[in-house]
């Protein structure tokens, strides 16, 4: 954050269940990509450990939600903040 040299920052963590993240990755990435299995495996680890991040200003769940709904929630938080 210090490297940004900004007057204000807002750190937002998007979250979803590990199974959802793994499914999204498999749906998005080419099946022939050599890094697919590692990325899928690491997605579960990241989902489990990102809750330990500090200095997060807002956590938004993407579980079962449309992109527009998540974006609206973020924009609403930015207007209030």
Helical percentage: 40-55%
Q: Total helix count?
A: 3
In whole angstroms, how far apart are the ends? 17 Å
Please state the average pLDDT score: 93
Given the helix and strand composition, which structural class is it? mainly alpha
Structural domains: how many: 1
Please mark out the parts with pLDDT under 50 across 5 or more consecutive residues, or reply none: none
Q: What is the helix/strand order?
A: EHHEH
Order of strands across the main sheet: 1-2
Q: Rough shape?
A: globular
Give the radius of gyration.
Answer: 15 Å
Polypeptide structure, described:
The structure is a single chain. Helices cover 48% and strands 10% of the residues. It has 81 residues and is mainly alpha-helical. It has one domain. The protein has a two-stranded parallel ribbon. The mean pLDDT is 93.
What's a quick, concise take on this entry?
The protein has a two-stranded parallel sheet. By secondary structure, the protein is mainly alpha-helical.
Write the layout of secondary structure elements.
Blueprint lengths: L11 E4 L2 H11 L7 H14 L8 E4 L5 H14 L1
Parallel strand pairs: 1-2
Helix pairs in contact: 1-2
What are the main properties of this structure?
single chain; 81 residues; mainly alpha; two-stranded parallel ribbon
């Amino acid at each position: 954050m210090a490297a940004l040299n900004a007057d204000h920052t807002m750190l937002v963590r998007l979250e979803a269940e590990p199974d959802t993240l793994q499914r999204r990755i498999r749906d998005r990435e080419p099946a022939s990509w050599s890094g697919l299995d590692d990325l899928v495996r690491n997605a579960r680890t990241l989902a489990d450990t990102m809750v330990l991040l500090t200095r997060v200003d807002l956590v938004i769940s993407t579980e079962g939600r449309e992109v527009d709904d998540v974006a609206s929630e973020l924009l609403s938080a930015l207007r209030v903040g």
